Amino acid sequence: MEGEQWQYFAPLGMFLENALMLPHQPQPTKRLDDMLFLRVQEVAMTKGEFEFARTCLRELERLVDGLNPGWRVRPFGSLCNGFAVHGSDLDITCIQDGSDGTNQSALQMLEQVLPAIQSHDKFKVVDVIKAAMVPIVKVNFQNALDVDLSFKNTGPLPNTQLLRAYSELDPPHVRDLVVMVKLWARSVGVCGAANGHLSAYSFTLMAIYFLQVEPTVRMPCLDTELFTGEGSVPKEAKNQWWRCKHGRWDLLFLFFRFFSRNFRWGSEVVS
User: Fold this and answer.
1) What span, in angstroms and rounded, lies between the C-alpha atoms of 186 and 177?
2) 255 exposed, middle or buried (CB, 10 Å; 0-12, 13-18, 19+)?
3) Lower Cβ count inside 10 Å, N or C end of the chain?
């Protein structure tokens, strides 16, 4: 994995560095920034897509509540953390609130939910993964939205809340850099854990980490203990003030230079 990732970061990092060693030309740089801005806007989720995802969530809420009033569904992932793009899927986990006095396993919950989804006219079951550490039912909602429904999978909820806080610190820079990096990773075929590559979530963490450690950026590190996964972004995190002075082109260059020259592959850890 280390060598494979390096072979993609190093050439691009050197290419961008050579490009920026040319005499400074404000107008071409401005045009590059504008092009990146337009590309990010092209892939942005629309209000209609977000509303469609909310409609799907409400349908699953009704379905689950009809099975057991002590169960509820919680969304997480890119559609909630501020880094969604056009075509992003919806990650949802079904959890117990304890009000029904039972403590069923994730697999038992899946077995009860699955027949209800299969008989629902708006959902189509694509795959059922029971043997995984976290059981998942992959479904499609109205032939338009892919949904991963997991069970008792609460771990991602605080992470989603934390990433949301970072995305709101300085959206034109934090969000856009993450989106640009994920677009690049997909375009060169190095994104996707199922294919032995880093996941889109991993590339998000890499972008956040770079923004925190790059000397000319120094995005603040938020206290992870503030994030429980419940509610919106804690007010303590919202009180952080920080603005990035770099444009999109500069940030993208610095990102690739960092991971091609400064990051210690094999010993340094992004988390």
Assistant:
1) 14
2) buried
3) C
CA 76 to chain centre: 9
CA distance 78 to 53: 12
Both structure tokens of 75: 């969304």
- Contact call for residues 246 and 173 (beta carbons, < 8 A): yes
Number of neighbouring beta carbons within 10 Å of residue 107: 13
Q: Which amino acid is at 173?
A: H
Q: Does residue 93 sit in helix, strand or coil?
A: strand
Give buried/exposed letters for 179-198 (b at 16+ CB in 10 A, else e).
bbbbbbbeeeebbeeeeebb
Amino acid letter at 26? P
Task: Give the residue among 193, 216, 201 at the shortest CA–CA distance from 262.
Answer: 216
State pLDDT tens for residues 137-166.
999 999 999 999 999 999 999 999 999 999
Q: Alpha-carbon distance 69 to 61, whole Å?
A: 10
pLDDT in tens, 85-130: 998 999 999 999 865 556 789 999 999 999 999 999 999 999 999 9
